[in-house]
Specification:
Layout (H helix, E strand, L loop, with lengths): L2 H36 L6 H33 L15 E4 L2 E5 L4 E5 L2 E6 L4 H6 L7 E4 L2 E8 L1
Parallel strand pairs: 2-4
Antiparallel strand pairs: 1-2, 1-6, 3-4, 5-6
Helix pairs in contact: 1-2
Length: 152
């Protein structure tokens, strides 16, 4: 499988992972909202208020997760499959002697089509090392030497 085909398969998998994160967060928000709104006032008013406050905190947490997942989706949409990269930058798939890295969103290790990839952001230590490098360049990371074999 060509590196470009691998990149397409990886992006399809990443979109599925991010969409799952979005759906999970939306379901959790709906559940927390239903629980919060379903709290009935009892004779112990403080208990009612505490329960509602806890559900609101839970809702806020899930809304933050949803916001992060939507931001990941927006970042992923910026990856250009048609672009040919001479140097490693946002959106490039970098094949090295020690693994293949997608410089886009930081989701870590992802399996797609039987291959293992590392999805990293440019802000990550490995992303910063790879950024701007070309085929044949080498970087030191974690006590290992990674030689860039190909870019797409």
């Amino acid at each position: 499988m060509s590196l470009r085909t691998q990149k397409e398969a990886l992006l399809t998998q990443l979109h599925a992972v991010v969409d799952e994160k979005i759906a999970t967060a939306q379901a959790a928000i709906a559940s927390a909202k239903e629980s919060r709104d379903g709290e009935t006032k009892s004779t112990a008013g403080d208990k009612y208020e505490t329960g509602r406050a806890m559900m609101q905190i839970e809702m806020d947490r899930h809304e933050a997760q949803l916001g992060k997942a939507l931001a990941l989706k927006n970042e992923l949409a910026r990856v250009d499959l048609t672009k040919t990269y001479a140097k490693a930058e946002f959106g490039s798939l970098v094949a090295t002697t020690q693994g293949t890295y997608l410089l886009a969103i930081g989701l870590g290790k992802v399996d797609a089509e039987g291959q293992t990839y590392f999805t990293v952001s440019l802000a990550s230590p490995i992303g910063q090392l790879l950024q701007g490098k070309s085929t044949g360049d080498a970087v030191q990371f974690g006590g290992r030497t990674l030689v860039i074999e190909a870019l797409v």
